[in-house]
């Protein structure tokens, strides 16, 4: 009885059950890990293990000696209840420290396992060229690399131009019937959530811009049925292998058949599959956020340096508190596991230099800044141009005269919507979905009052042209990054991506620009949609764009207006907004210019209505209370609080970045030298035509 009592005391102190779990041949012991609810081996090299081993042998010796002692000696050995309780608490505390160390060590090893899988070129399930269908239903040929748990997509085979990373753990795969040649299959999220990671394997914040790809699925085409079947089998294996990107603490009894060599120098796919089969009964699955966090371990996840410094200060304070409670323990975090390779060192990325925008033009509210009187010389140019077109014709291939050009690219103009991106930062923090929708609509309206003076049209971007800029948020100390690229010339498609990870939102989309001629007027139609995502909520707000209408080409005053119906919809919450941009009636007064009306809805129920002018005051009226108040008004105070835009330093821009690409045309237009501007514009357009012929 005394021996059993001694064993029970030891078991309660160290968490070891010698009856249920006898010692192994190799002499290693098991420690109960409360965090995972399982028994985990401690390597004999751990400092805590040697201490526990000595305690075991010492207790066994004392237990055997107690059998031969007298009754009084036995009472002396047992001691008082107070001493026994104190000793038990101390031993439990030491055991908890060992468990915490083991927990931190296993986290590091799991991180190293995933990182080595992503970066090690030897861990590849399959790699080949595949065609992927974009949101505009056009196919793009991309280099796809399949690894356990992830599908990496690149523009080229050299893995230099990363497009995106698909997280496979939540995906399903199904064959898709198709009339076209080859084999088609679909990779999708069953709940229509995003399947994409937000950063690349080397910390890329923005991937190479291609044809816009869907967010919740991918439709993929292989060249032949055999290749397609092979890809489907490989994807199914990789889907199962996503459970291997997990914590490696495994319960006793599940690991007898899994032998991991400490001399292993790299992870093999066979070993990953074998390990997965052994533990397929356990639900050791990582969710999207865990895989993404491991995928981007050791990468810069911050919008700017200040975010990283603040986070490091927080970590340091936590480490100080932890250190005070564990001063007597030996740090075991430096123990290396030879079963996993060290990732290759990545060269630090050079941060792009952005400079503050020196000049910004804001047009006046009302009709005055949207009209222009054409000179007689320019009228003759317009008549010459009109002879080449007919009503209903698409003007996308027509070369326009330079006097109607605004001296900046269309990619630059698309960034006008983000000078009040701080409204989106506020919306991301808003708990009420209705108020969140109102802030999104308010941000949407804030992008229209900035307009050039007169009737101007931006440059048509050259194929491959890019534009980058950012806005600094002084209140949240974050940055909103913007990048756009012309991904197609005929038809002209512009793709863009906006991101502020710290404030929790990103926005992406593509615009197909079309123009129609109607005799005395023409319309610039912007087809496509933008998708605003709040990262911490998983909400997507899909929105469209109004069209620009220019009238008075042959007679009357040339005037530019906005028209059409815009929809802003969040499928997850059920809230939506409908905005109608109204054209001025034929007999309307100046007060009828730039009118807008709208509705805020939950399902089919109208919650509020909007009325006003999109470049000035907009009023909102609640349907229940019938109260009306100002919803949006770009007053001078509001304009003063516009975020300041920063563009890439001119010396660091690439040859195909908008400012550098169009610099000579812009210089000539600003100097009012239309002849020089026309010549320089022709040089760029001819170079683009020659490049198209060479392709």
From TrEMBL:
One of its GO terms (cellular component) is endoplasmic reticulum membrane. It comes from the Eukaryota. PROSITE patterns: OSBP (PS01013), PH_DOMAIN (PS50003). Residues 123-240 form the PH domain. Residues 50-63, 70-84, 91-104, 297-311, 321-338 have a biased composition (Basic and acidic residues). The keyword Methyltransferase does not apply. It is found in: Endoplasmic reticulum membrane. It comes from Pan troglodytes (Chimpanzee). Keywords: Endoplasmic reticulum, Lipid transport, Lipid-binding, Membrane, Phosphoprotein, Transmembrane, Transmembrane helix, Transport. InterPro entries: OSBP_sf (IPR037239), Oxysterol-bd (IPR000648), Oxysterol-bd_CS (IPR018494), PH-like_dom_sf (IPR011993), PH_domain (IPR001849). It is a single-pass membrane protein. Residues 1-24, 36-104, 297-374 are annotated as: Disordered. This is Oxysterol-binding protein. Belongs to the OSBP family. One of its GO terms (molecular function) is phosphatidylserine transfer activity. The keyword Cell inner membrane does not apply.
């Amino acid at each position: 009885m005394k021996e059993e009592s001694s064993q029970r005391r030891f078991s309660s102190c160290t968490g070891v059950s010698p009856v249920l779990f006898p010692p192994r041949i190799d002499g290693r012991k098991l420690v109960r890990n409360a965090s995972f609810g399982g028994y985990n081996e401690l390597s004999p090299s751990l400092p805590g293990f040697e201490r526990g081993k000595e305690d075991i042998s010492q207790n066994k010796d004392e237990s055997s000696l107690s059998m031969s002692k007298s009754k009084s000696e036995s009472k002396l050995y047992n001691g008082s209840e107070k001493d026994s309780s104190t000793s038990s608490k101390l031993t439990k505390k030491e055991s908890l420290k060992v468990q915490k160390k083991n927990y931190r060590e296993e986290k590091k090893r799991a991180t190293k396992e995933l990182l080595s899988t992503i970066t090690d070129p030897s861990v590849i399930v399959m790699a080949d060229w595949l065609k992927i269908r974009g949101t505009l239903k056009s196919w793009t040929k991309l280099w796809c690399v399949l690894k356990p748990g992830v599908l990496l997509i690149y523009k080229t085979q050299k893995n230099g131009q990363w497009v995106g990373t698909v997280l496979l753990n939540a995906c399903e795969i199904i064959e898709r019937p198709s009339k076209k040649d080859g084999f088609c299959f679909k990779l999708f999220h069953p709940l229509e959530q995003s399947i994409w990671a937000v950063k690349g394997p080397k910390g890329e914040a923005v991937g190479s811009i291609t044809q816009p790809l869907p967010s919740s699925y991918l439709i993929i085409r292989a060249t032949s049925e055999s290749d397609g079947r092979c890809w489907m089998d490989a994807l199914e294996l990789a889907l199962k292998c996503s459970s291997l990107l997990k914590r490696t603490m495994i319960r006793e009894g599940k690991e007898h058949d899994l032998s991991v060599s400490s001399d292993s120098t790299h992870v093999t796919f066979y070993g990953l599959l074998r390990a997965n089969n052994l533990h397929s009964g356990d639900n050791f699955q990582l969710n999207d956020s865990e895989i993404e966090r491991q995928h981007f371990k050791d990468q810069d996840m911050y919008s700017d340096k200040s975010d990283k410094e603040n986070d490091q200060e927080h970590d340091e304070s936590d480490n100080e508190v932890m250190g005070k409670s564990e001063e007597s323990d030996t740090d075991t975090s430096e123990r290396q596991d030879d079963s996993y390779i060290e990732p290759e060192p990545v060269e630090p990325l050079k941060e792009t230099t952005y400079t503050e925008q020196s000049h910004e033009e804001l047009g006046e509210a009302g009709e005055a800044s949207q009209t222009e009187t054409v000179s007689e010389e320019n009228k003759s140019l317009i008549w010459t141009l009109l002879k080449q077109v007919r009503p209903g014709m698409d003007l996308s291939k027509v070369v326009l005269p330079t006097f109607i050009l605004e001296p900046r690219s269309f990619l630059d103009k698309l960034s006008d919507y983000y000078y009040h991106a701080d409204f989106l930062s506020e919306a991301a923090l808003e708990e009420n979905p209705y108020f969140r929708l109102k802030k999104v609509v308010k941000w949407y309206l804030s992008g229209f009052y900035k307009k050039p003076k007169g009737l101007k049209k931006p440059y048509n971007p050259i194929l491959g042209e890019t534009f980058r800029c950012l806005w600094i948020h002084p209140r949240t100390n974050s940055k909103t990054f913007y990048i756009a690229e012309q991904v197609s010339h005929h038809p002209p498609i512009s793709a863009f991506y906006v991101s502020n990870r710290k404030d929790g939102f990103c926005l992406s989309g593509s615009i197909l620009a079309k123009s129609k001629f109607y005799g005395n007027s023409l319309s610039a139609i912007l087809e496509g949609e933008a998708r605003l995502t709040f990262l911490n909520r998983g909400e997507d707000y899909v929105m469209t764009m109004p069209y620009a209408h220019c009238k008075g080409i042959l007679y009357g005053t040339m005037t530019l207006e906005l028209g059409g119906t815009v929809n802003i919809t969040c499928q997850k919450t059920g809230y939506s907004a409908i905005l109608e941009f109204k054209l001025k009636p034929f007999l309307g007064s100046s007060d009828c210019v730039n009118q807008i009306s709208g509705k805020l809805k939950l399902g089919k129920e109208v919650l509020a209505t909007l009325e006003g002018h999109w470049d000035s005051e907009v009023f909102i009226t609640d349907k229940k209370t019938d109260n009306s108040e100002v919803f949006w008004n770009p007053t001078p105070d509001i304009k003063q609080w516009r975020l300041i835009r920063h563009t890439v330093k001119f010396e660091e821009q690439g040859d195909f970045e908008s400012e550098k690409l169009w610099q000579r045309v812009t210089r000539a237009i600003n100097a009012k030298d239309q002849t020089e501007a026309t010549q320089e514009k022709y040089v760029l357009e001819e170079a683009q035509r020659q490049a198209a012929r060479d392709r």
